[in-house]
Each structure stands twice: as structure tokens, then as C-alpha cells.
Amino acid sequence: MSEPNRHLPHHGPHHPPHEGAQRPDGGRRTLLAALAAAALAPLAACGGGGDDHHHDDDDAGHEQLPLLRFVNATLEYASLDVFLPDIPDRPASKPVEIDLRNGGTTTPYDSLGAKRHRVRMKSTTFGVEGEVEGEKVFEPDTYTTALAYGGRGTSGKLVFLDENEPAAPDGRHKLRVLHASPLHQALDVYVTPPTMTDLRDEPPALAGIAYGAVTAYKALAVGLLRVHVTAAGSKTVLYRSDPFHPSGSITTLALLPRNDRLHLTELPQGRSAQQHDNVVT
């Protein structure tokens, strides 16, 4: 059974989603936010691992609180604590997540109040060089991923990925790519049938993706696939996944460093993140 969806402290009426995302493997985190949310209504159900968040008919006409999750995709910050300083009646120094490990470790979604919030992600080992920060207005009925990436100091960045894309047509899924690896310049991404390994005659699905860029969504046929990544204009494979079915009909593929190699974390809209190892030897 998946872990219940957790709730960041907030004020105002609460209409929780009815199925929570399962906690991904990896990273030891004490969920301090849950302590402050003890008075909130519990989830009505606990679904299977990676089930979509959805709104039952009983919730029709009610606004759902925004949902937010966090990713540590940084190169040098092995562990990050996460702070939301603008939550009323909560010390700004009290984290909502602790020990979020790098390499693409991702939290489940949490609900928070519909308003402008600052997000601070602070290294547990570096001092003033070890922080990234950003702010955003979180609207009702929305999903967002806050992803920290880059190196130490001013090269560290925080990006908010809005995950509110309309559904793909029948038989298709939508895929976009975030290039978050400071170890690599522009990249080409190939999405192929699962048995393909020779890219010589294959055009990239998404080409020339600059570091820090997020592509537009591309609609692809549903089915088992394989992802390959090369330097822009090259056919030498830097990253190759095992064959996999995308975890959702709408997903972001985050290309990021792990153990000094290029790796991929799949961030499906409204579903649990999945890590896909690099099988290039």
C-alpha cells in the first residue's frame, strides 16, 4: 500500500485528493510537515504505487489545494533540507523536508495553501554557498515540481515545473525533457522502440536541448520505449535506459547527474517519480 499523501501546513478549507503517490525509494527523510498537519482530514483511500491523483465526483465544484513536490538534481549538494518560509504560524527555520538526497531523489506531492510561497532548498553540508531559492504563486487545482539543479554557489538553480498539461489524445502520451546536468552541453534525446540500439539512421525526438532548458511537450505513440541521449549532433550514446513504459500519459524526463554520469528521473504529472539507470557500459 502506498504511503498517504502528506499535507504542508496551510490555512483555509481542505479537500484532499483521494489517492496518494507512493514514496520513491532512496533518501531518508523525516516528514516534519506531517506533524503540523495532524488535525487535517485523513485521506479517504490509499491506492497502489504510483496511482494518479484524481478528484472524485463528490469533490465536483470544490477547488483542490495546490500540490507540490521537490527534487534534488544538484551536482554537489548531496543532501538538501527544504523550507517554506511563508507558511503562517510556522517557524521559517523549520524544514518541511529533510535529507533530500541528490541524484534525482523526489518527494511525494504535498498540498499547500493557494498563495505565493517562497521555496528554499539548503545544503546540509555547505554554508552560504549551499542554498537555492525561488518563489511562485500556487493556484488551486495545480501540480508543481520544485527542482534544484546545478553546482555550488551561484551556479545552483531552482526551477518550478508546472505540471498541468491537458491529456494527450487516445493512443498517445506527451513527453518533454529538462536538461539539468551541468556536466553536459546541449543534448539530443532519442525515443525508440525497446530493441533499438543503433541510432545512425534515427532522428532525435528532441534536438539541441541546452543546459537548463525545458522543451515543449511532444506527443508520441503509447507503448514500451527506450530513451537514448547523445551530445547534440552526435550519435555516441551518453545515456541509455532499459526499456520501460512511461509511468503516466504526461511526463517530464529530467536529465541529471548521478555519480558523475548522466541519468534520468521520470516525473509523471500527478504520479510518483521513477528513476531509470544508465545502462551504457
TrEMBL record:
<feature type="domain" description="DUF4397">
    <location>
        <begin position="67"/>
        <end position="190"/>
    </location>
</feature>
<feature type="region of interest" description="Disordered">
    <location>
        <begin position="1"/>
        <end position="26"/>
    </location>
</feature>
<dbReference type="Pfam" id="PF14344">
    <property type="entry name" value="DUF4397"/>
</dbReference>
<dbReference type="InterPro" id="IPR025510">
    <property type="entry name" value="DUF4397"/>
</dbReference>
<protein>
    <recommendedName>
        <fullName>DUF4397 domain-containing protein</fullName>
    </recommendedName>
</protein>
<feature type="compositionally biased region" description="Basic and acidic residues">
    <location>
        <begin position="16"/>
        <end position="26"/>
    </location>
</feature>
